[in-house]
Amino acid sequence: MTGPLLVADDLHLAFGPTRALAGASVEVAPGEVLALLGPSGSGKSTLLHCLAGILTPDRGEVRYRGTRLDDRSDEARSRLRRNDFGFVFQFGSLVPELTALANVALPLQLTGARRRAAEEQARSWLERLGVADVAGKRPGEMSGGQGQRVAVARALIGGPRVVFADEPTGALDSLNGELVMEEFTAAARDQGSSVVLVTHETRVAAYADRSVVLRDGRLTAAPAWA
Amino acid sequence: MTGGIRGPGGRVRRARRALLTRLATRCLVTAMALPQTLLGLLEPAPRHGYDLKREYDARFGEQRPVKSAQVYATLGRLLRDGDITVVGTERVDGPDRTSYALSAEGVTHLERWLAEPEPSTAHLQSEVYVKVVLALRSGRPAEQILDAQRDAHLGVMRGLTARKRGADLPTTLACDFTLFHLEADLRWIEHTAARLHRLAEELS
Amino acid sequence: MNRPGRRGAAVLVVRLALTAVRRSPLPAVAGALVVALGVVVLLAGLSMHPTAQARGAADKAAMAGEFAADGEPGLLIAHSSGSYRDRPITASLVADTAGGGLVPPGLDRVPAPGEVVLSPAMRELWSDPGTTLAQRYPGRDVGTVTRAGLVGPGALVVWIGVDRDRMPETRVVTGFGGAGVADIADMPSELRLAVPLLVIGFLLPLVALFLTVATMGTAARERRLAALRLLGFSARHARLVAALESALVVVPGVVLGCLVFRLAAPVLAPHLPVRGGVWPDHVFFSLPVAAGLLVVLPLLGTAATWWALRRIDVSPLGVVRGAGDRELRRRRLLPLGAGCLALAGSAAAGHGADDVTLAGALLLAAVVLLLVGIVLAAPLLCRVAAQGLGRVLPGIPAQLAAARVRRDATGAARLVTGSALLVFVSGLLLSFFPLLETGNAAGLRALRDTAGGNLLVADVQLLDTAALAELRADPGVSGVARLTQVQISDGAGQGGPLITATDCAELSGVLPALGGCSAGSLLLAPADSDAKAVPLRTDGPLQAVTMVESADGGSLDTVGLGPLTTSEAPRTSEVLGSLDELTGGTIGLVDVSALPAAARPTAAGGTLLVRPAAGSAELERVRTLLTRATSAASVLTVDEQVAEAERTTQTYRDITLAALGCAALVGVLTLTSTLLQQVREHRRALVALWMAGMPRATVRAATLLQSSLVILPVVALSLVLGLATATTYLALADGGATRLPWAAIGVVAAGAAALPLLATALTLPALRTTTHPQLLPD
């Protein structure tokens, strides 16, 4: 496939009187790891949510593989999340009642896989990310680093085209954060998934192929080494 | 992009390579950018040497005091290179005072220096700070100086992060040393960027 | 692109919900218990009518239904009512006229004179000498009344064989049950109407509470839903999951409720406080009804959750509640205003008596509009109250409470919606009470006021003079008097009004309040009383009309009365009027000494009044003596007769209060569990307050105040509206003659206000365990 995988074109979005996005544009190439950097309130998470079809911009458009994403129905966007996207958030993207193994197996089951097969694959992902020992634990019973590794495994297991990661290491110390990032980006690159990474930490952004900086709802400059 | 801050990609890439080389050898050069600073101070209007020293001390002297002889020697070198020209001599209660002005070549040199990101050094922020102040005084977009610096730093960080992949522990820790320093610089850049407007107001 | 397999998704959803229940079982178990309790109440309500019908049918089958003229083969039967320690006794004298082979239901043979047949419950009492029942209904125990002759397992029934010539009854019974028996209803028509109303009245707050719980939700559920949305569940799908989850709580609740009812009803039915208890198989638990509940209630719960979540955006980023207070528009007051207008319109139409149909329709519309209006207006009212009180009340707790209510008035109002509806509905339900108290009971209550409630009254079947003498001599008896009826004439014609003949000396002993009745006196009721519709001249000589029996039948004769002192005493009219209740309407009292011998009372007929000695604990013994003296006639105290007459009202009151009590119980349970969850979820805010130096007591006070801020105005509003509606309804129903049971309604309102407060108070201990600094970092 040629051309960008995901395009945001002049997005505007306001929450009441608060302007979150004011003309943000960005492109994500297939297989690219892109970091969205910026201070708190710069609109980087909002941009990620718009790119993932979770939020709908007031103005501007989001295109995924050449077609509009922002005007699709909730049903269609949910299908995209199921089949094409993966997510790693700072907190709570795991289902609190399910074990690590069941959480990781969930995306496969949602797309119709049998439980046994899904769990087998989930176990190998947990092993790959070095958290096979927490397979039977629930999110509340794991450390932050283990939880984020499980979340990474769950985001990648379905072989998504894009993984959206919002401050994936926000709750971790710097060493743990780097280890998670290392494993996350390596695994994503291995299977050719693009990654949209929101962070305010430059060392985390350094794991990306490219960084863009948001301030006041728009990008500060065009990419320097595109 | 306007203002000539960002040069053609080739030049930046060269600079980046040079920077990486320097970092890899861990040869941290402390470059005193006195000539370029004097060019910047001369830009608004012609000055004589004593005036230049006074303004330099007022603006940057706290961090790096400069001797008069250093200023005159540098002015002589700049005059020799054609970056400045003599515009007049006057005598006021004492020695002769020569006024200098920026030449067209001097402006080019100044702009190139402003546009070029600095390598990471222990005194980097001073260097960038000087650039930001000078840009603000001259009405140039100082934000772009910070953006360029951030991009350059991020590029270096990406390079170092890539180097760490699969590297042995000494190399990893060496890279981390630089990464953390770069991160500190970037934080300063973010703080400055967030308060550029107020800085411009206070400088004017 | 493949859709999640429907089966796979369903299995996943169920698994998720089950895991959720396993992980935090308390809310789910509490929810299921609440539903189970609701189901038990619902089943009880639903089985009330069929049970009453079954009892009615059983009664009917045991009643004499075919009759023949005297002399035909058949049975002579005389029923009478007795009582033993507030348990009604049915005693029946029976005599076989010609051995026709007819046997009353439940008996295997007709008892011969001197024999009795007893129901099992009766035998238990009868064989205990302390009860004196064996003396009251003497005879040789020759058999047991089986189920066919009993309305309930605890029914006290005795069949007494007597000589044919001692029977006061002359109609010959030739068959039981069938078409000849008048349709008797165990449940008055008002109650038949009330049962569905009660069910609705109970269900409304229940549904409101369902909605409350569904909307309040839990943080865990919201995290789960958000995580599922992120994984690709659509918003509809996520709502469906939530709805199914609520169904998963409701279904076990319904099953449990049905099971409990199924198991408990047969055990409890015989002990129900209704006449004779209830046969277990008269309590209808039909599988179709249970299956219906199993479908309807989960659907209701699911629909409620679905509806409640419609306003809530379950986004992949978490659950976003509606914009909340900004959305509180004035137009929320419209239904309430419309309801008030409809009520006023109904009152006006009813007052002018122009159009009762219109007034009724307007009233119905008003009830519906007000029910909706209260729910819609409650958040606004809460916010206004919070704003006002927050300004007026001093202290940090008040400020904190007001701020919390202002921030989420809609959520706060939900706490009280169930209670508010309960108050409104109960106002309507309780206004039925006064309507049910019929004139019959009013006359008996007047008798109780003038004669005292412990006065024993017996209809004389055949007076046993020996037993009567024993009764008079008994130390437990302070007075005995007999009332009979005599027809008198002023000579203008043979027909004349009835007058009550009694021994004035004896009667004054029984009824000290009665004045003007002495030897040789004639005491006439006041001139305006109904009984004097037949004119009687008292200035001339009066005659008693007597029956002269002869071989070829009987003829009427008149005999002159002795010298009389005639008086008309208005002061005694109340006693006289209330005596009418016993004698059936006469023009007054005449002392028996004034009657000619031919007109004196015979052994049969009349009424015997017995005043037990003050404070006598031996009422049952006296009753036994009296029963024997009157040949097993009905012997009841005035109190018992009043209770019998008010049985409908009483039953209705009991049912209503039971339903309200159950609704209140369900309410407290639901609210407590929901509030507990809320406390848990807000624990970080609470800990923060505590860490900032706010004492726990202040946090508690603020929590209680917060509930009061919400409860008091809303409950007050529904109380006022409920009373207004009830008043309008009563005015429409009987022209405002009856008064509202203010006390009962006040108690219900106070209870409804206390209910959410109680629920809040129950959560206060949780604040202690919740406000622990270790909980601060989640």
Automatic annotation (TrEMBL), chain A:
GO cellular component: plasma membrane
Matches recorded under Gene3D superfamilies: P-loop containing nucleotide triphosphate hydrolases
Annotated SMART domains: AAA
GO MF term set: ATP binding; ATP hydrolysis activity; transmembrane transporter activity
Keywords, in A-Z order: ATP-binding, Nucleotide-binding, Transport
Record-linked Pfam families: ABC_tran
Domain ABC transporter: 6-226
Name of the protein described by the UniProt record: Putative ABC transport system ATP-binding protein
Source species: Blastococcus xanthinilyticus
UniProtKB/TrEMBL annotation, chain B:
Domain Transcription regulator PadR N-terminal, residue spans: 38-111
Pfam family, one: PadR
Alphabetical list of InterPro entries matching this protein: Tscrpt_reg_PadR_N, WH-like_DNA-bd_sf, WH_DNA-bd_sf
PANTHER family: NEGATIVE TRANSCRIPTION REGULATOR PADR, TRANSCRIPTIONAL REGULATOR YQJI
Entry protein name: PadR family transcriptional regulator
Organism: Blastococcus xanthinilyticus
Classification lineage: Bacteria, Bacillati, Actinomycetota, Actinomycetes, Geodermatophilales
UniProtKB/TrEMBL annotation, chain C:
Membrane topology: Multi-pass membrane protein
Domain ABC3 transporter permease C-terminal: 200-313, 659-769
InterPro entries found in the cross-reference section: ABC3_permease_C (IPR003838)
One Gene Ontology cellular component: plasma membrane
Keyword Membrane in record: yes
Protein's cellular compartments: Cell membrane
Top-level lineage group: Bacteria
Alphabetical keyword list: Cell membrane, Membrane, Transmembrane, Transmembrane helix
Entry annotated with the keyword Cytoplasm: no
Pfam hit, one: FtsX
Transmembrane region(s): 33-52, 193-219, 240-265, 285-309, 333-353, 359-381, 415-436, 655-676, 709-730, 742-767
Protein name: FtsX-like permease family protein
